[in-house]
Design the sequence.
């Protein structure tokens, strides 16, 4: 008979309540919130392929800077990739990472959610962070729940806000179909969240310094990748746009949407909207900004005929410059915009389009 005393040990395979094969020895007790000495924040830094090689995704940059500002714990960044990633070190340190774990394992150069989660779990075991943050991207949504299951902890998905209450992470996300904003706490360490892009301001790109560590993960791939085919074409995600033309209930003429699209294509912008236009059936839900839509943080947000209701504001208040075109001088949006035009929104769109065509 085994001497095993309960489910928190994983040093043998006698326990039946947990899956000991998936947890490194001592992991459960280390992450008990009452006993834990866990500290700091670990962030998976996702890279995006561009014409000039990989670059740090916006959401990862936002999370590193947000973690740095949340408390005085260390910020650990984890990045997967080959030698080309070395050129990104100083940028990642510049956003606020103190230590960078660079996973250079050849077998992990092809993305696999299981292997990435396994590798992240091995780094979590070394670092023992109190918090793990991952971008709410399609890959983040695949890796985070697998990692949470391996660590035996909870996961709050799709957060739009984070704050620290002592050692507790308060994770804010829309709930009940966007009717409420819920503050969620995790009763175990590490406390894990995936976070929507644009929930925090995009930090400036500056060079920084820190400690870089090469990490080896020998378990490698659990699957063989036979072939990979990247999907080409520009992004259709309003969260990626640097300039947004936002249309709201003050737009009276449906053809103004085509005019806005025409202006957007000339200046490299995208068109988004408030819930009013989604409810009218004029714009798809994927373009809606706000509490029950997407959170954006462009350099310029041009709001045409938008009142500035709080449910819209929470989705765009991270914009660097806000220009409001609204014919009501008392509309709330004028109170938080950098420039206000008290005039008719459809006419301004037409005028802009004509001027651009003449040029
Ligand atoms: C649970 C919940 C979740 C929600 N989620 C979202 C969300 O994600 N996103 C969102 O946007 N809303 C959301 N809403 C709805 C939100 O409360 C507002 O109703 C909505 O944002 C209003 O959109 P709007 O300002 O474009 O339209 P309106 O309220 O119709 O305001 C139109 C504005 O345009 C101005 N205007 C009128 N005519 C003109 C003109 N000719 N030229 C210029 N300006 C003009 C008016 O003065 C007014 O300020 C949510 C509501 C709830 C209850």
Sequence:
């Amino acid at each position: 008979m085994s001497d095993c005393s309960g489910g928190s040990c994983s040093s043998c395979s006698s326990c039946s309540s947990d899956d000991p094969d998936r947890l490194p020895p001592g992991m459960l007790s280390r992450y008990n919130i009452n006993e834990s000495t866990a500290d700091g924040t670990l962030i998976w830094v996702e890279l995006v392929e561009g014409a000039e090689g990989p670059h740090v995704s916006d959401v990862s940059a936002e999370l590193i800077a947000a973690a740095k500002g949340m408390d005085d714990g260390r910020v650990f960044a984890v990045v997967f990739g080959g030698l080309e990633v070395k050129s990104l070190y100083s940028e990642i340190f510049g956003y606020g990472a103190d230590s960078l774990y660079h996973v250079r394992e050849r077998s992990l150069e092809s993305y696999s959610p299981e292997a990435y989660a396994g590798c992240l779990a091995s780094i979590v075991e070394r670092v023992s962070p109190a918090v793990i943050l991952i971008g709410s991207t399609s890959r983040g949504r695949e890796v985070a729940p697998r990692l949470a299951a391996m660590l035996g902890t909870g996961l709050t998905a799709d957060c739009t806000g984070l704050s620290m209450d002592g050692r507790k992470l308060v994770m804010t996300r829309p709930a009940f179909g966007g009717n409420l904003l819920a503050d969620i706490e995790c009763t175990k360490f590490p406390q894990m969240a995936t976070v929507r892009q644009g929930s925090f301001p995009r930090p400036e790109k500056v060079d920084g310094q820190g400690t870089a560590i090469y990490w080896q993960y020998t378990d490698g791939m659990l699957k063989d990748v036979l072939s990979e085919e990247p999907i080409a074409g520009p992004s259709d995600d309003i969260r990626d746009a640097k300039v947004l033309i936002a249309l709201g209930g003050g737009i009276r003429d449906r053809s103004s949407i085509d005019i806005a699209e025409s202006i957007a294509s000339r200046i490299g912008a995208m068109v988004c909207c408030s819930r009013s236009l989604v409810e009218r059936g004029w714009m798809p839900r994927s373009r809606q900004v706000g509490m029950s839509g997407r959170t954006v943080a462009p350099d310029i947000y041009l709001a045409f005929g938008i009142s500035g209701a709080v449910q819209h504001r929470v989705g765009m208040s991270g914009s660097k410059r806000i220009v409001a075109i609204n014919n009501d001088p008392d509309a709330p949006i004028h109170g938080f915009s950098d420039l206000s035009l008290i005039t008719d929104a459809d006419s301004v769109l037409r005028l802009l389009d004509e001027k651009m065509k003449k040029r």
